[in-house]
Amino acid sequence: MLAKVEYGGVQKYVKVPESDECFHFHQFLKDVMDKFSLQPQFFTEGVLILTDTSDTEVDADIFDELVKSGVRAFKVGYRMQTATDIEISVVDDESESSVQPIPLALLTSPVSLSDHPSSPASTSSSDSTMILKSTKNRKKGLQELDRDEAKQKVCSVLSSNPKGEEIFNEYDKTKTLSDPTRRQMVNILVADMIESHGRIPPISVRTNYALGIATLFPYLQDPYSKNGYEHYYDPEANTGYLAWRLKIVQRNTYDGASGCPRPNFQHSPTTRRESLFVSGQLFGEECREALSVIRHSTDRSVVKEKMKATFEYRQKLVHDPDATSAILDVFPRFLDTPGLIDQDFAMMLGDEASGRFLTKWSSYFKQKIIAETQSLPSSPCVEELRASFDTEASNDWGWDSDMAALLLLLHLLPPTSKGHKKTARISSAQAANHLVRFIKEGVSLTTFLEKANTRQPFLLCIGEQKKNIQRFFIVVDQKAIPCDAPTSVAAFDGLFKAHFVFSLSYDEALSSFYTFIQTTIYNIDVGNTKESPRVKELRARLLRDR
Predict the structure, then answer these.
(1) Where are the CATH 3.10.20.90 domain residues in the chain?
(2) CA angle 185, 188, 190 (to 5 degrees)
């Protein structure tokens, strides 16, 4: 995309750099400088500014939105630095006196900073000297409120709103906010933000409102995020409940405007990872010999040993787009030797990470999730899952309590439409079919697999009843990998690990569900994984100490 840029009465076309559907302000400004042969220090020292045709300054946080809204003409000039941008100090010792040059005034043509020599701008007496200092850092600090001021700001806005008392009362009673109350709070704060700072509030303002929420309501903080308030506003990703509400308001008030898309995080099940145990890996002819042993050996200990020695080779295959679909053909022992998925996962992320889910689920998260689901609206599916926890009720058709709790977690983190208008949003009950399926003992496994047309893994349970499973399989590419697990929670542990071992992305309908499991329970790539605000909010609820 091309933009018309004017400088010193001369107009030129400059290409607007774009990646991941986002237009980049700083690179564009550098390209403008190259086009007009401007001095590089103007950029590094923040002297150069970009304005639209109405002479309104364009900042980095709104550049992408302006371009997407149709703005294609800009002007480049210099920032005005007036005498108010200096600090005057008086010192008693004349020997300590010094004079700092006043920053550049607004210019109409490019000049080097060296063209403006420092002029004496002080008068001295025998006992005092005036010192002029740039207060750029001081002014920058004034743009951000401190924690107490941010808290007071949010408190003041909510207190002045008729609905604010309801928000405070609910938090005082429950130490959390229900989804409707949280939406109400966000709407109130965004309305005040826009009224005070315009339709596109600066990033610092959005951040301060999020900081104020987390400070005023400490139990709403996310203990795993950098600052605790990123689920309300994350300045790096431009996401969170406040950002979402702002985008809705902006779309309704300015046709065609849209914010910068979220960045693509690198850490996920498809990320290339080296083995933590680098010794003993086989390559070349030795690797080919090991593959032959793996195929023909009947000794499970030998198979596992050779599989461990070919881990790096296997990882290259699963991350090769042309070879990943054949991984179960090259290593067919996944299909008849339980425990190989656990072994690869432990080599990838360590024994401690491998055991976290089984350690934490029953001892902590299961009961927390069950308690949290009491706020879910009643539905036949939810009530059937809740019945699994009633030991006195007759429940011949439902899942065991562990699987029921996992499926209720899916109801707490339901599928989203991902913003695609053409993509129909499915319900949590429908998404459960992407996670786990049940067939009765005696049903043809081959026939079932032929109809299971999906690449993303799911758990297949075979038995007479859902609560009494005889066999578990992890289905990948219409192939059933046996899961030597005594319980449904252990079988799910293997299902989750299969995503990492075979470098498979999460099913879109289960993205929030799996991301919560990954970061909050397994503690994998915490802080480096893209998480929805709902994931962060649920974590804050479950991990808080009441």
Answers:
(1) 2-78
(2) 105
What is d(CA 307, CA 339) in angstroms, rounded to the nearest whole number? 11
| Cα distance between residue 457 and residue 479, in whole Å | 10
Whole-prediction pTM? 0.64
Q: Which amino acid is at 296?
A: H
CA 144/CA 133 separation, integer angstroms: 21
Q: Which pair of tokens denotes residue 381?
A: 């599916």
Is the backbone of residue 103 left (phi > 0), alpha (psi -120 to 50) or beta?
Answer: beta
Hey, how many other C-beta atoms are within 10 angstroms of the C-beta on 523? Answer: 14
For residue 438, the SS3 value is: strand
**Separation between Cα atoms, residue 346 and residue 279, nearest integer Å:** 15
User: By C-alpha distance, which of 389, 388, 406 is closest to 397?
Assistant: 388
CATH (one of 3.40.190.10, 1.10.3720.10, 3.30.300.30, 3.10.20.90) for 2-78 = 3.10.20.90
Rounded Cα distance, 496 and 435, in Å: 10
Task: List, in sequence order, every beta strand (DSSP E) within 477-520.
Answer: 479-483
195 Cβ contact list (under 8 Å, min separation 6) = none
One-letter amino acid identity for 11? Q
Starting at the edge strand found earlier in the chain, the sheet holding 436-440 runs: 436-440, 458-465, 468-476, 479-483
Give the Cα separation of 327 and 502 in Å (integer): 8
How confident is the model over 41-84, as pLDDT tens digits?
A: 555 545 678 888 777 888 887 888 788 777 888 888 876 543 33
DSSP lists the bridge partners of residue 481 as: 474
Beta carbons of 461 and 407 less than 8 angstroms apart: no
The amino acid that residue 484 corresponds to is D
* Terminal Cα distance for the chain, rounded: 53
H or E segment to which residue 253 belongs? helix 241-253
pLDDT tens-digit series, residues 357-388? 999 999 999 999 999 998 899 999 999 999 88
Please check whether residue 281 is in contact with residue 275, taking contact to mean a CB–CB distance below 8 angstroms: yes
Side-chain half-sphere CA neighbours of 262 within 13 A: 17
* Rounded Cα distance, 76 and 74, in Å: 7
Lookup: tokens for 344:
């690869």
Most confident listed range (102-116, 423-437, 455-469): 455-469
